[in-house]
Amino acid sequence: MIQITDLEKFYKTEEVQTIALNKLSFNVKEGEFVAIMGPSGCGKSTLLNILGLLDDPDGGSFMFNGTEVAGYNERKRSELRKHNIGFVFQSFNLIDELTVFENVELPLIYTGVKPVERKKQVEAVLEKMQIMHRRNHFPQQLSGGQQQRVAVARAVVNNPKLILADEPTGNLDSTNGNEVMDLLIDLNEAGTTIIMVTHSEHDAKYSHRIIRMLDGQKVTENILA
Amino acid sequence: MFLNYIKIAFRTLLKNKGYSFLNIFGLAIGITCASLIFLWVEDELSFNKNFDKQDQVYYVPTNQNYEGEWRTFYSTPGPLAQDMLNDIPGIVKATRSSLEERLFVVGDNSITRSGRYADADFLEIFSLKFVEGNREDAFVNPEAIVLTQETAEQLFGKDEKALGKVVRVSNKDNYLVTGVIENLPNNVSFPFNWVAPFERYRDGAEWMTEYGSNFSDTFVELAPEANFETVDTQVRALIGTKEENTDDYAFLHTIKDWHLRSKFEGGEIVGGRITYVRLFTIIAFVILLIACINFMNLSTARSEKRANEVGVRKAMGSGRGRLITQFISEALILSIIATVFSVVMLAILLPQFNLIIDKNLTLGLANPMHILSLITVAIVCGLLAGLYPAFYLSSFKPVEVLKGLKVTEGSATLIRKGLVVGQFTISIVFIIVTILVYQQIQFAKNRDLGYNKDQLLSMRIDLDFIPKFNVVQQELIRTGSVDNATLCNSSLLSGGNNGSGFSWKGGTDTEDVLISFRNVTQSFFDTTGMEIIEGRGFSETVEADSTSVLISESLAKMMGNESPIGNIISRGDDVLEVVGVVKDYVYGDMFDASDPVLFMHFPSYTRYMFIKTKAGVPINEALSDIEAVMKTHNPAFPFEYSFIDEAFNEKFKNEQLVGELSQIFAILAILISCLGLFGLAAYTAQQRRKEIGVRKVLGASVSGIVKLLSQDFLKLVLISIVLAIPIAWYFMQDWLQDYAYRIEINWWVFIIAGVVAILIAMVTVSFQAIKAAIANPADSLKTE
């Protein structure tokens, strides 16, 4: 599904150039659950942003479902993103002014799904995430675990082929963290590809494969049983 | 999708109540202020529009040359109208007309009303709409009079028909009502309450039928197919073919320009009220702009709060276009709410505004144009205010904002500062303008008028009253409430009669000098307080001084350095001896030097009585004493009077209007700017919370923090002052050029305006700065 080859990303300030990704290459197959680990500043999040088409690489190739997407402009990236990719962030990134239902509904609005159909899909996913009873609440009225559940619901409501999770349990206690990880496992078992950036060895064990990074490069790659 | 925008907009609005209040209130004040101006402008532009023949009706003023300078007068020679009709094919109707005030009596009912003596064509030219009688027959009877509905109702009662009834005029003539016309609307530049045939105006004296004496207005109607240039050229040539040795000429002045473009200089139109209409229209837009700037500033200042939402929406697949639409929709919703509020504010403020501008404007919400205008204002404001923030906010990169990176605000900060400078520059200009206009009005009001306007009453009198004057004067003085009384042929403040063709011993080219003449009684100088600086006043008896004149100081100067006493002034067969010189006095334009004056002891043709009441006598007491005397000697006439000092204040109406409006605009501009500044200061304080916390932990004092937060804003206000001074100086220098008698612009005016602006800005900012400075640093550091 994803093939990246010699991927490069630099950050430049006036005087210094920092290499965030240094000729990084790996593949992810459809249905896989991959964890990416490494110390702060190793390039994990940069990689996730590029994989999520939120950012452009400065060099190398990025094939998504057999198509080179590295040179895509904002409009094309946005198009590809909204149909194929769901995001789960460490800080949930729910919109405070929208209710649970409306937050989850958002990706469907952007993909042009009709209101009746939207309602059906949102309710289905809220049921699945066991958060239906909170559908009319605003994010500030929910616990961290509940908020992340909503964020996961929002990420999957569009049935994306790929979910990118950036430290999804980073802001949660262990009970809530485990619940979120169980949700991701369920989604993966249902066929969704998941790439997760994490600092947590515990969370990484839920994945099929762990890629460890350092200074923008892949250091090791462990396949878990 | 749009519903989603509205939902978000309302929730954002409710969640940030303070911010929403600042934005909506600021915008509502701006829209209210602009709407008031637009209502005024609409009224000004609507003048005379109710007359049907907009493209065909013209005033015919004359240009006359005095001492090398062309001056424009509305009074024209009597035969001009008829000659234009006879000699110029493009002119199909013409009328003479003279505005007069007359006493009307029907039974016990007596009222004084102004109206016009005119020829029959007057009714046609102005398409007067008859509710009783008809236009064609109205002036067939030489004793006819046509009344407006209101005048007819006042004389004959609401349910009575006036047609065919007789009304007694000036207690000596009977007029037959031959028609009743619809009332004229308020927006007519020459209102009248009645029209009567011109033949009854005066006794048909010879001078009224000759060229050389200008006394009546002339109006004409051009044929629909007539070419203006051709007709105007013919009109300009006409007087020259009728009168020898004159360079006077008449010209056409379209009805469309009567109200707004009727200021003449050098014989040409140079403007008029249109200047104020343009000026205030610009001000309306400027005020709206200031209000919109608030919105832009507060929206971009809050960008960090919205950045996360932008990032999430983009990550979810929203394109930039959608975000722009969303933010503009929010601005539009806000501006619509502000517009609704402003309608409420308008309803509350309009009566006060009407008092200031002396009009009767209405909100007119049933008028589709008004509704359309409000919608347009709401949309324009929404777009203007929302466009920049929309483009700015939607440009955030999701990668950066989702990671919680600080939004780099380089250009936005600069633009925001620029906008604050813009707002304050405008506010300071308004402050300077307000001070200077006030100074100019006070300067003219306090100038030495050459007479004492206080406790001086003016009354119109009829010719029949003149023989009774001496007795009335003595009785008035005997009441103990009156110092003295006098008669004069014109009001004290207006131009009155004038003429040229005078000559005197030792004078050259004197024929060209335009001199005003006043027919007065012996007590004139004593009553008005005018000072005789040389020679003597008039004798008790008219006969003793029938050929004596007093002249004004400026005329004396024209006559040379030697004493003018004993000099002879002659015009035609009249030979007049100068017996005294009167200190110059101000009449006509209160901001200009007045033409020279010649006073004659000639009560026969006087039309006004001036009464000086005694100092210390309560005015009500004095008035009742005067009324008693007048009722005894002039029983047929209602006791109607005016105070000269009130009429004097009326003369400053335009300047007073500019002064009061600029004061209001200054206050509003500052208020709106301060709302914006208050919001900005709040956000700056919030943004710098951590910095303030760290500084306090390291030992910074409260005053040090307040200074830190205030100084950035102080710099902006200082830049505004530097920008505002030359702008205000340029505009006011230009404005003052219109006044011959004007103030010098003093540097301290700029200092005052600057200090006021700084004080207001600092009070606004320091509230937020102090709040931030006294906050517990533990709270701000903990959250990081």
From TrEMBL, chain A:
- Per UniProt, which keywords does this protein have? ATP-binding, Nucleotide-binding, Translocase, Transport
Q: Which InterPro entries match?
A: AAA+_ATPase, ABC_transporter-like_ATP-bd, ABC_transporter-like_CS, MacB-like_ATP-bd, P-loop_NTPase
Q: Fetch the Pfam families from UniProt.
A: ABC_tran
| SUPFAM superfamilies for this protein | P-loop containing nucleoside triphosphate hydrolases (SSF52540)
The UniProt GO MF terms for this protein read:
ATP binding
Transport is among the record's keywords: yes
**At the top level of its lineage, which domain of life is listed?**
Bacteria
Q: Where is the ABC transporter domain?
A: 2-225
Supply the CDD domains for this chain.
ABC_MJ0796_LolCDE_FtsE
Q: Please state which protein family the record places this protein in.
A: Belongs to the ABC transporter superfamily.
UniProt cross-references to PANTHER family, sorted A to Z: CELL DIVISION ATP-BINDING PROTEIN FTSE, LIPOPROTEIN-RELEASING SYSTEM ATP-BINDING PROTEIN LOLD
Q: What is this protein called?
A: ABC transporter ATP-binding protein
Q: What is the lineage of its organism?
A: Bacteria, Pseudomonadati, Bacteroidota, Flavobacteriia, Flavobacteriales
From TrEMBL, chain B:
Q: According to Swiss-Prot or TrEMBL, what is its membrane topology?
A: Multi-pass membrane protein
Entry annotated with the keyword Magnesium: no
Task: Could you list this entry's UniProt keywords, alphabetically sorted.
Answer: Cell membrane, Membrane, Transmembrane, Transmembrane helix
Location in or out of the cell: Cell membrane
Protein name listed in UniProt: ABC transporter permease
Q: Which residues form the ABC3 transporter permease C-terminal domain?
A: 282-396, 664-777
Domain MacB-like periplasmic core per the UniProt entry, residue ranges: 20-238, 426-628
The residues that cross the membrane are 21-41, 276-296, 323-350, 370-393, 414-438, 664-685, 713-732, 747-767
Question: Does the entry feature the keyword Nucleus, yes or no?
Answer: no
Q: Which Pfam families match?
A: FtsX, MacB_PCD
